[in-house]
């Protein structure tokens, strides 16, 4: 578009200049330091006219620099040569070649040029072609600022100059056809018409607007005459990928309607109208805007209607992956609205008659979600109900429940206690208050009570060995501050006829790629006989106490803790448990007892067992009941045969220790390295 428009201005001006001089005599050289016409400025221009065959004239034009500011041409070199003749209808006809150097996108570097000047019809027709690319324009001689333009197989990159004033992005691939009307007004232009795209790719400096392999067609309007450049687009697109700020689309093969009104000024872009209609996946209407740095300034979606799984596959997959929710399975439909400004979230609402979602990582899932929420940062909204058939958090399956919610002054509150069935027990949510707009402050606070949760089912859900017991406890305060969930109070697990108490729990980035869990664990009087039978470690009787303090898990893998395990009351230990305890602790048998003697006895009495580990990074600093020059005591025997297990490795590689534990609890012989 830029090339044909600029060429028609240049050719018209030069044609009139040359034609006025051509009848005088042939073999004429015309020169001008500056030549300006219809918004075109040529510098250091030379035109040579000489006689040709059969009454024709040969014309050669050279311009060192051609500037067309409104179309983005600056310092473009131009060379035109060909044959000029007059036909029986007194029209001037020119056939020749044109080469432009330095034009946007390398436009018309080696093109054929044809023009017809018909003074009787007040018309100039210009046709330029290069390879498959064809561009034609027609304009009145007495109004050279207006043109009708036809483009076929035009590389999109050639339009870079034309769109530079309206948009700071860049075309990377693809071509188009177009039928446009163009008017040059002052230092800007107005253009409108229809177009077809094939394989278009583009991006923008801030990365907020981009496309790849887009095809389709529609209507386009451009106006660069005001302080703001404006673009109106109503298109039907198919295939390829499109990014509009936070909205990323992987378009289907069937047509998707896209409409927008955009205004650009000093690098900032505002889409005052945004319309997307994909019949079986997504419909939305709204507006959005970016500042000059590409940061999102507003996102107002007055209406959203999504049908799953198509909406997730085409439009939601990348967005949810950014939240850490990948490879989701979805079904059903949702409708709602969203209002986001630089200061934060202003409002949202959604409603569904049935929606299913399961995160591929098992962190979040819901079945038959029904009802909705309606929240606003100001004022009060009508209360809503939201319920489900089942809800899973980190593979823990909660049963059916329904809650009633009310938004007042930016706070969304549960209006009555909510009882969530969980693994034959219950989680009771006594109160819950959520402030969605609190970006770095207290987002959520709640109080919970847990009763009668089956630990065998709980263990299986988390992939642990199944062991009996129940989980209960009170959490008088759970707070979500920034990206961190903090639990006041604690949970108590009644297991192995003892208790495991969990306190100071906190979870950072709960749905991120690498959630971080911290807390303290205290073990009180666990029955070792029941515990070792479940974990297939070998038989140990007695009671176990201990602590795992300053526990820190990253993506559910331990990276730091201070652990101390003790059995101070004595008991019996089997031969197999002795072997496992010895190899896990990296120790050996002391007191002169040989392996052949060890095999003569099935169990041994012990007085105390103690093993400590301080984990930092990938290294565990080991210790036991007491230290000596030869190492540290893990097990102190009692009676005959008198048994003592000594640890000799003070620093153990954590992955090695984990392999030993897995081998011991799986019934295999742990490996010592």
Structural description of this entry:
- This protein is mainly beta and 673 residues long.
- The protein has four domains: 1-128; 165-310; 323-497, no CATH class; 514-665, no CATH class.
- It is built from eight helices and 44 strands.
- It has a 44-stranded antiparallel β-sheet that branches.
Features:
disordered C terminus; 8 helices; 673 residues; 60% strand; 44 strands; single chain; disordered N terminus; 4 domains; 44-stranded antiparallel β-sheet; mainly beta
What order do the helices and strands come in, and which of them pair?
Elements: H1 2-21, E1 28-37, E2 40-51, E3 57-68, E4 73-86, E5 92-101, E6 111-118, E7 123-130, E8 133-140, E9 146-155, H2 160-163, E10 170-185, E11 188-203, E12 209-223, E13 229-238, E14 241-244, E15 247-250, E16 256-265, E17 268-278, E18 282-290, E19 296-308, H3 310-322, E20 329-341, E21 344-358, E22 364-376, E23 384-388, E24 390-393, E25 396-398, E26 401-408, E27 411-414, E28 418-422, E29 425-434, E30 442-454, H4 455-461, E31 470-481, E32 484-495, E33 498-508, E34 516-527, H5 528-535, E35 543-554, E36 557-567, E37 571-574, H6 575-584, E38 587-590, H7 595-598, E39 603-616, E40 619-624, E41 627-628, E42 631-637, E43 644-647, E44 651-653, H8 654-665
Antiparallel strand pairs: 1-2, 2-3, 3-4, 4-5, 5-6, 6-7, 7-8, 8-9, 9-10, 10-11, 11-12, 12-13, 12-14, 13-16, 14-15, 16-17, 17-18, 18-19, 19-20, 20-21, 21-22, 22-23, 22-24, 23-26, 24-25, 26-27, 27-29, 28-29, 29-30, 30-31, 31-32, 32-33, 33-34, 34-35, 35-36, 36-39, 37-39, 38-43, 39-40, 39-42, ...
Helix pairs in contact: 6-8
């Amino acid at each position: 578009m830029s090339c044909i428009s600029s060429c028609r201005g240049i050719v018209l001006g030069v044609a009139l200049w040359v034609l006025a001089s051509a009848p005088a005599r042939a073999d004429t050289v015309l020169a001008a330091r500056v030549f300006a016409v219809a918004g075109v400025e040529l510098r250091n221009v030379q035109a040579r006219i000489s006689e040709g065959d059969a009454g024709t004239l040969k014309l050669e034009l050279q311009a060192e620099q051609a500037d067309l500011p409104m179309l983005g041409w600056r310092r473009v070199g131009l060379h035109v040569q060909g044959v000029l003749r007059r036909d029986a209808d007194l029209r001037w006809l020119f056939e020749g070649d044109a080469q432009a150097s330095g034009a946007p996108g390398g436009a018309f570097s080696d093109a054929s040029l044809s023009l017809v000047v018909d003074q009787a019809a007040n018309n100039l027709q210009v046709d330029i072609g290069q390879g498959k690319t064809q561009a034609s324009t027609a304009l009145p001689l007495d109004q050279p600022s207006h043109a009708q333009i036809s483009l076929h197989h035009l590389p999109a990159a050639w339009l870079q100059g034309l769109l530079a004033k309206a948009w700071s992005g860049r075309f990377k691939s693809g071509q188009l056809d177009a039928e446009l009307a163009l008017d040059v007004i002052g230092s800007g232009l107005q253009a409108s018409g229809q177009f077809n795209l094939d394989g278009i790719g583009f991006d923008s400096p801030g990365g907020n607007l981009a496309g790849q392999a887009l095809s389709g067609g529609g209507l386009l309007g451009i106006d660069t005459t005001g302080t703001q450049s404006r673009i109106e687009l109503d298109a039907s697109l198919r295939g390829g990928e499109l990014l509009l700020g936070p909205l990323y689309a992987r378009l289907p093969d069937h047509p998707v309607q896209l409409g927008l009104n955009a205004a650009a000024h000093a690098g900032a872009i505002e889409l005052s109208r945004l319309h997307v209609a994909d019949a079986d996946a997504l419909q939305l209407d709204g507006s959005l805007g970016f500042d000059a740095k590409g940061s999102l300034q507003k996102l107002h979606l007055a209406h959203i209607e999504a049908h799953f799984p198509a909406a997730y596959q085409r439009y939601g997959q990348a967005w949810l992956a950014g939240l850490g929710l990948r490879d989701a399975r979805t079904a059903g439909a949702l409708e709602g609205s969203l209002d986001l400004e630089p200061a934060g979230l202003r409002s949202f609402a959604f409603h569904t008659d049935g929606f299913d979602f399961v995160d591929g990582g098992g962190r979040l899932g819901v079945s038959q979600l029904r009802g909705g929420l309606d929240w606003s940062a100001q004022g009060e909204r009508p209360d809503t109900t939201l319920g489900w058939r089942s809800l899973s958090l980190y593979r823990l399956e909660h049963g059916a429940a329904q809650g009633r919610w009310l938004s007042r002054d930016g706070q969304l509150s549960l209006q009555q206690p909510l009882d969530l069935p969980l693994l034959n027990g219950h989680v009771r949510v006594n109160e819950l208050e959520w402030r969605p707009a609190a970006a770095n402050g207290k987002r959520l606070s709640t109080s919970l009570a847990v009763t009668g949760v089956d630990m065998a089912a709980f263990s299986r859900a988390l992939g642990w060995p199944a062991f009996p017991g129940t989980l209960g406890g009170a959490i008088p305060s759970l707070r979500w501050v920034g990206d961190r969930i903090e639990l006041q109070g604690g949970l108590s697990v009644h297991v192995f006829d003892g208790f495991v108490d969990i306190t100071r729990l906190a979870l950072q980035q709960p749905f991120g790629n690498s959630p971080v869990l911290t807390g303290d664990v205290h073990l009180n009087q666990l029955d070792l006989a029941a515990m070792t039978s479940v974990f297939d470690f070998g038989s140990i009787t007695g009671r176990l106490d201990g602590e795992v303090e300053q526990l820190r898990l990253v993506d559910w893998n331990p990276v730091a803790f201070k652990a101390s395990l003790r059995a101070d009351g004595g008991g019996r230990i089997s031969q197999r448990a002795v072997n496992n305890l010895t190899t896990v602790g990296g120790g050996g048998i002391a007191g002169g007892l040989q392996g052949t003697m060890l095999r003569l006895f099935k169990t041994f009495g012990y007085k105390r067992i103690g093993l400590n580990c301080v984990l930092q990074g990938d290294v565990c600093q080991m210790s036991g009941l007491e230290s000596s020059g030869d190492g540290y005591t893990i097990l102190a025997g009692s009676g005959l045969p008198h048994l003592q297990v000594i640890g000799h490795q003070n620093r153990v590689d954590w992955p090695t220790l984990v392999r030993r534990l897995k081998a011991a609890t799986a019934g295999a012989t742990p490996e010592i390295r």
